[in-house]
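Budget justification aside, the reviewers requested a transparent look at the raw inputs and outputs of the sequence design task funded under Objective 1. We therefore reproduce one unedited record. The lines immediately below are the structure tokens for a 777-residue chain.
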């Protein structure tokens, strides 16, 4: 009979015992210290705060325990992640791993998430980063619905899908025809399609073509990725692209309401200039900004979709691409001049206007969708571009142009009709203006060189107003210095009054976020646990799901497969013995039902690491190529006995034979009858304190509060787990095997401690709900 593996020092066990008992008995529940006697004036003076500072603080401060009104999803720039934060507090809540391995979420560490990253491989190469630019929330009837988030990778033309049920990345798709991209992700009103437009022209589908053939063989384009909402997946087989001239197609936006069925994509370098400083040619930047205007591409995507369905597309890399000449002849694509080197293209909430900013022009141009339709219907075109695409005269379709300042980039909309906010990169300002009547209303300096700007639901049919966030390219002197690489800076601006007020600076240390979207927090309904055994990357029940008592180690040939479980505070199995050279896969299931009870699993020196949220099943695989003794443990401080959530991987060297003498030895301390009886006494005392807590909970009607009730159920479940060890302990005591009797008795007490721990947490929460102090008796 093997002994349970426990080797804690009696001293440490004794002190732990004291702490847990003291907590259980309420010894640490001293009353809170008296409130500070300082007044607001005192604090203002001491911290040198102005009246305006105090006002700003009051506008952003979210009191302890309270939550934010909006949740922002920011591109993490070069980190290949998404940053989630609350508005107005600007507190960071999560990093979502998307294109880049991330250890805490085990992204790129467990087999399930490795499979997601593998979808993003290009030409057989792992791409372990992403230049994330534009997050986009799924929409229903033109407003965010809180279900999905999309984000693009500019460098390696890819899109990712994040499910907001659990904030995990579920899918990565690689653009089958582009070599780079920028104008993604933008979604249609009901998330039928997600746009990804090419950036730098290249031969569609890849392959080498000399630059001399740029005009004829290099192409741009826009891809419309079909989204299947039920499956939560982008479907390549139902997606298509439109071939476009070798202009650098840039940002895009879908039409909505009045402009439903259309999309808009701007472009730069319509000069089709090819640089080459080393070949003695003037650089790209000179040749790409030589003309006064570039082209806004006006696209009837509904018609394009119908033509593709009717078989008018050609296949490139087996992907349907609507040829440029077909698109031009069938009235799918039109061009309208726009001030040179434009940046953002943003459709107004009613869908009636399209605003375009020219980086090198002080104006924002407002195009009328109605006028566009009239010109198209009347076939009023000034000429065709070199590829036969009709060009509409800018004068015919312009609603107004407003001079806002230097370097206008991106525009977002207010809840108030006709009000827009535009970022001014060169001026380092935000402009508030009236796009209907063409008037500048207010400007506010920001710090420094703003790129994107974002208002609450500011690109939907129903903007919510209240705040805009400025995404600044440079922080310079805004924060404590941290070396030559500075953090990025998101500045929060209050827009609820006529005058804008800057109220918060938020450093972001992860990469250069290009864009951010914010949704009303109440529209998000993420889950707190998975159905037991879920592969969170596919949302299916994993074939490796393991229930309590069904843990096993299966060896077959050179393969070792472990089916294990995690629960406070043990990993089952606790000893894994393999032979040097074995291929090992460890499938673990977190059996917890309690909120926030995540467990980790890591094997020292084997680069094995994972994270298991309640209910999740995930697997780690490695080759046991080094013989030795390798501790494994839970890397998440999950409970009082977290450090004891441990085990051993024993990798036996080739040809190892155990000796009979070694096999007969017993590890660890041996215990006496007195030790056993002392432990039984501790169990009795602890039981008493548990009963007191339970009585308190019952007397105060805990069942009326679902979250408290869930905690109490979890606590009682922990207590219930003591039954098995108790029976074993008594069996061994009857046989006078005091070591085993004492160890099983101690296990009974471990479950009591967990029970008391959760019970006290439930009591604190209950007191909070009843308006008492957390530790009130
Ligand atoms: S782009 Cu970066 S500031 Cu990629 Cu949307 Cu304008
Ligand atoms: Cu589980 Cu620490």
């Amino acid at each position: 009979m093997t002994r349970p593996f426990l080797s804690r020092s009696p001293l440490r066990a004794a002190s732990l015992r004291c702490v847990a008992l003291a907590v259980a008995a309420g010894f640490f529940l001293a009353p809170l210290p008296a409130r500070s006697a300082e007044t607001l004036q005192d604090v203002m003076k001491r911290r040198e705060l102005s009246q305006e500072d105090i006002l700003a603080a009051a506008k952003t401060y979210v009191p302890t325990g309270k939550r934010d009104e909006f949740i922002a999803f920011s591109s993490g720039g070069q980190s290949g992640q998404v940053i989630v934060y609350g508005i107005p507090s600007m507190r960071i809540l999560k990093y979502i791993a998307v294109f880049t391995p991330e250890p805490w979420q085990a992204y790129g560490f467990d087999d399930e998430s490795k499979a997601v990253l593998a979808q993003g491989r290009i030409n057989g190469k792992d791409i372990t980063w992403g230049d994330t630019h534009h997050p986009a929330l799924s929409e229903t009837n033109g407003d965010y619905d809180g279900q999905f988030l999309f984000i693009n990778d500019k460098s390696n033309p890819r899109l990712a899908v994040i499910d907001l049920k659990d904030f995990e990345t579920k899918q990565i798709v690689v653009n089958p025809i582009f070599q780079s991209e920028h104008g993604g992700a933008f979604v249609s009103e009901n998330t039928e399609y997600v746009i990804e437009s090419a950036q730098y022209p290249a031969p569609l589908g890849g392959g080498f073509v000399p630059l001399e053939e740029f005009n004829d063989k290099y192409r741009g384009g826009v891809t419309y990725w079909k989204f299947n909402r039920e499956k939560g997946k982008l479907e390549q087989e139902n997606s298509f692209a439109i071939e476009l001239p070798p202009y650098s197609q840039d940002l895009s936006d879908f039409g909505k309401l009045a402009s439903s069925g259309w999309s808009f994509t701007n472009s730069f370098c319509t000069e089709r200039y090819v640089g080459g400083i080393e070949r003695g040619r003037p650089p790209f930047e000179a040749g790409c900004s030589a003309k006064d205007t570039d082209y806004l591409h006006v696209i009837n995507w509904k018609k394009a979709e119908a033509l593709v369905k009717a078989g008018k597309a050609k296949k490139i890399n087996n992907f349907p691409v609507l040829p440029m000449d077909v698109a031009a002849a069938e009235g799918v694509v039109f061009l309208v001049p726009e001030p040179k080197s434009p940046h953002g293209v943003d459709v107004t909430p009613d869908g009636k206007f399209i605003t375009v900013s020219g980086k090198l022009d002080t104006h924002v141009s407002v195009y009328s969708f109605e006028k566009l339709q009239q010109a198209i219907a009347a076939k009023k075109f000034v000429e065709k571009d070199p590829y036969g695409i009709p060009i509409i005269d800018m004068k015919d379709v312009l609603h107004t142009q407003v001079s806002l300042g230097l370097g206008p980039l991106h525009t977002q909309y207010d809840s108030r009709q006709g009000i827009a906010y535009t970022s001014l990169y060169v001026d380092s300002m935000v402009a508030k203006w009236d796009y209907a009547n063409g008037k500048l209303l207010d400007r506010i300096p920001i710090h420094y060189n703003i790129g994107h700007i974002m208002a609450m639901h500011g690109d939907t049919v129903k903007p919510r107003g209240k705040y805009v966030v400025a995404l600044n390219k440079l922080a310079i002197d805004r924060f404590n210095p941290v070396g030559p690489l500075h953090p990025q800076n998101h500045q929060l601006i209050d827009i609820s009054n006529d005058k804008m007020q800057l109220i918060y600076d938020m450093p972001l240390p992860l990469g250069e976020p290009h864009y951010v979207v914010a949704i009303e927090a109440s529209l998000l309904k993420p889950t707190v646990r998975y159905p037991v055994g879920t592969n969170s990357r596919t949302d299916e029940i994993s074939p490796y799901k393991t229930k309590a008592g069904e843990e096993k180690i299966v060896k077959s040939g050179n393969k070792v497969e472990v089916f294990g479980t995690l629960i406070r505070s043990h990993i089952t199995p606790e000893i894994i013995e393999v032979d040097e050279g074995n291929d090992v896969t460890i499938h673990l299931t977190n059996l917890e039902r309690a909120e926030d009870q995540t467990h980790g699993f890591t094997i020292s020196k084997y680069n094995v690491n994972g994270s298991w949220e309640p209910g999740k099943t995930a697997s780690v695989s490695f080759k046991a190529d080094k013989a030795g003794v390798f501790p494994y443990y839970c890397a998440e401080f999950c409970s009082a006995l977290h450090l004891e959530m441990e085990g051993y991987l024993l990798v036996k060297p080739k040809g190892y034979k155990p000796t009979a003498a070694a096999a007969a030895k017993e590890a660890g301390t041996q215990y006496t009858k007195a030790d056993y009886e002392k432990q039984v006494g501790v169990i009795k005392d602890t039981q008493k304190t548990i009963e007191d807590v339970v009585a308190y909970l019952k007397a105060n009607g805990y069942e009326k509060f679902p979250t408290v009730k869930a905690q109490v159920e979890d606590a009682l479940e922990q207590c219930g787990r003591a039954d098995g060890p108790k029976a074993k302990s008594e069996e061994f005591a009857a046989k006078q095997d005091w070591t085993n009797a004492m160890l099983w008795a101690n296990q009974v007490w471990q479950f009591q401690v967990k029970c008391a721990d959760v019970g006290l947490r439930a009591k604190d929460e209950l007191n909070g709900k009843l308006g008492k102090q957390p530790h009130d008796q």
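Residues 1-19, 23-28 have pLDDT under 50 and may be disordered. Residues 738-769 form the longest helix (32 residues). Computational costs for records of this kind are itemized in the attached budget.
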